[in-house]
Design goal:
A hairpin with a 2-residue loop joins strand 1 (about 20-25) and strand 2. The chain has 10 helices and 11 strands. It is globular. The protein has helices spanning about 5-15, 45-60, 70-75, 105-120, 130-140, 155-165, 185-190, 195-200, 205-215, 280-290, and strands spanning about 20-25, 25-30, 100, 170, 180, 220-225, 240-245, 250-260, 265-270, 275-280, 290-300. By secondary structure, it is of the alpha+beta class. It has a single domain, classed as Orthogonal Bundle (Putative xylanase fold). Strands 4, 5, 6, 7, 8, 9, 10 and 11 form an 8-stranded antiparallel β-sheet that branches. It has a 3-stranded antiparallel β-sheet with strand order 2-1-3, covered by helices on one side.
Length: about 300
């Protein structure tokens, strides 16, 4: 293939957007997609262009001088309207890598990406690899990617691990939350739903160990009917986890809290609306979620 042809194909390939992996300080495309036809008024974003957009917004609005919760929401608001896409972290099978996707989100990756970018900005860092390292620190047990099982699959485990790392503090108890123990077993008992566990069944035993650790812990949550009592104590940038009554699981959804004109709103990646949205009322969303029994509230900690 001639060099000119190679550059043309590479340019088309990168223009698609999609998901990038960052390993050993090298950016590599992780998932091939057919290029989409571009409307005359449409601008196709890539990870790099979205990252540069966020950096520009940060510089223009001096995000570094704000508190970290405000920065988390400033970042997340830039993603409003972006597509919802589930399973974006599962693209590498058993070869676990740091997945960076600023183009499409599920509820967890929206929360992690917004928090990681905010932490990077507060540290005065500015490169994609800096961002990837923050993602790794947040997403994996003890901040280190080892393999698939080192990812914090259960939100309860995510909370405990990120409290220990000084990323967030769980304020549910101080808000008057009541004790709860999560009887988690969904992953190990439904391993056929997880491609990596199907392919590498020996990992199921490791998942079972982490599930047992979670079951022994006591958490606190605010029951749905008590939520109105704590709304006025919530802050922009707080993280919210929706406790579920679904057997074997702990949480069914996560999102970000935005307080505007004394109204508590929910910014999240909605599977129902298929995009990132800002709901006018977290209370209304909670009431409409039949499987949610209450919430846990985490507050990002300053760097």
């Amino acid at each position: 293939m001639k060099r000119r042809e190679f550059i043309k194909i590479l340019s088309e390939f990168l223009a698609v957007g999609g998901t990038f992996l960052l390993t050993n300080d090298i950016l590599a495309k992780s998932k091939k997609r057919r290029p989409k036809k571009k409307k005359s008024s449409e601008v196709i974003l890539t990870n790099e262009s979205m990252f540069e957009k966020l950096l520009k917004q940060s510089e223009q609005n001096n995000w570094k001088a704000k508190n970290i919760g405000e920065v988390v929401i400033d970042v997340a608001k830039c993603f409003i309207g972006r597509p919802y896409e589930g399973g974006t972290l599962e693209i590498n099978g058993e070869n676990e890598e740091i997945v960076v996707n600023l183009i499409e989100f599920d509820c967890v990756t929206l929360m992690e990406s917004s928090l990681a970018f905010a932490r990077m900005i507060k540290k005065g860092l500015t490169t994609m690899n800096d961002f990837a390292r923050e993602l790794e620190f947040i997403r994996y047990r003890k901040g280190k990617l080892v393999d698939y099982t080192s990812r914090l699959h259960y939100t309860s485990d995510w909370i405990t691990d990120n409290e220990s790392k000084g990323v967030v503090t769980d304020i549910s108890k101080s808000l008057g939350g009541i004790p709860i123990q999560f009887n988690v077993y969904f992953m190990s008992e439904n391993s056929e739903l997880y491609p990596v566990l199907r392919k590498v069944p020996k990992m199921i035993a490791e998942i079972e160990v982490y599930e047992e650790h979670i079951r022994k812990r006591t958490y606190h949550y605010i029951p749905k009917e008590q939520f109105p009592n704590i709304e006025n104590r919530l802050q922009t940038g707080d993280l919210v986890g929706f406790v579920t009554n679904k057997p074997g699981l702990d949480f069914s959804h996560v999102g970000l809290i935005v307080v505007e004109n004394n109204v508590v709103k929910l910014l999240h990646a909605s599977s129902g609306q298929k995009k990132v949205v800002l709901e006018n009322s977290l209370q209304n969303y909670l009431n409409s979620n039949s499987s949610a029994t209450g919430v846990c509230i985490m507050r990002p900690l300053e760097i």
